[in-house]
Amino acid sequence: MTDHFPAKIGLSQQFPCSYLDNKQEQLLVILDHNYFTAKRFEYLLELGFRRSGDQIYRPHCPACSACQSVRVKALEFSPSTSQRRKLKKAKSLFHYKVTDQERPEYYDLYARYINLRHRDGSMFPPNHVQYESFLFCRWLPISFIELWYDDKLIAVAVTDTMPTALSAIYTFYDPDFEQYSLGTVMILLQLEVAKRLEKSFLYLGYQIDACKKMRYKIQFEPSQRLVNDQWLNI
User: Fold this and answer.
1) Is beta strand 95-99 parallel, antiparallel or unpaired with respect to 55-59?
2) Looking at the predicted structure, is the pLDDT value of residue 214 above 80?
3) Mean pLDDT across the stretch 189-215?
4) What interhelical angle do 182-196 and 81-93 show, nearest 10?
5) DSSP state of 220
6) Model confidence at 3, in pLDDT bands (50, 70, 90)?
7) Which residues does 90 contact at the CB level (< 8 Å), separation at least 6?
8) For the segment 32-68, what is each residue's pLDDT rounded down to a tens digit?
9) How far apart are alpha carbons 29 and 21 in whole angstroms?
10) Which secondary-structure segment (H or E) carries 87?
11) pLDDT reading at 2 higher than 60
């Protein structure tokens, strides 16, 4: 990439880490609105940044470097035997759709997911303002990968679309169907969509080895991890 690093950046105050106990978190935040485009955001993804709502950020913690960006080589991806089995079972029971339009029923599914699965997290209790400010973005194309059981919506993967990559923002699903490994299934569907659209990568966010909830991201191969500003094959 030939883009220069944004001229306007900010540094947040330190606050308790959402993932590691007894750790403080601090963020670099992009303030240069020239970078609020799909093409330039993709450049920032390559540097380890992520999106939350309209904001672009990257961990910049003075005493910790546990957060490492992970991306899957979508065009080369081949599911493991276990992943293939889970996807086959899901496809025998459910069907999926891809849309760029939010549905009214998304919020109820999101709230149910947070209430039943993440009562100990920073997003509890859910509310509509938080939901919109976290998932949606005014300057970036977003795709919603939906999983349906007949006419019942059971999962949604919110996915950003860039020129050569997709970025997984958040997946929420009906906890009544969690026995079908829907978290894994939705990533596999995102990879299926990425391959169909000939996108080189699916960005999965930050891998945090010390956080059990965040270890799943290196189960999709081949993938890369950003270490000391270099993408290394896992």
Assistant:
1) unpaired
2) no
3) 93
4) 90
5) S
6) low
7) 147, 180, 181, 182, 185
8) 999 999 999 999 999 999 999 999 999 999 889 999 9
9) 23
10) helix 81-93
11) no
CA-atom Rg of the chain in angstroms: 17
**Region of residue 19 (left: phi > 0; alpha: psi -120 to 50; beta: else):** alpha
Predicted confidence band of residue 1 (pLDDT cuts 50, 70, 90): very low
Domains and CATH numbers, the chain: 9-69 (no CATH), 71-233 (3.40.630.30)
Q: Cα–Cα distances in Å, from 4 out to 10, 37, 48, 60, 188? A: 16, 14, 15, 19, 34
Give the pair of three-digit tokens for residue 30.
């992009």
Chain position carrying tokens 């169909």: 196
Report d(CA 46, CA 70) in Å as an integer.
Answer: 10
Task: List, for residues 11-38, the tens digit of each pLDDT value.
Answer: 999 999 988 888 999 999 999 999 999 9
108 contacts 127 by C-beta, under 8 angstroms:
no
- DSSP letters, 178-194, are GGG-HHHHHHHHHHHHH
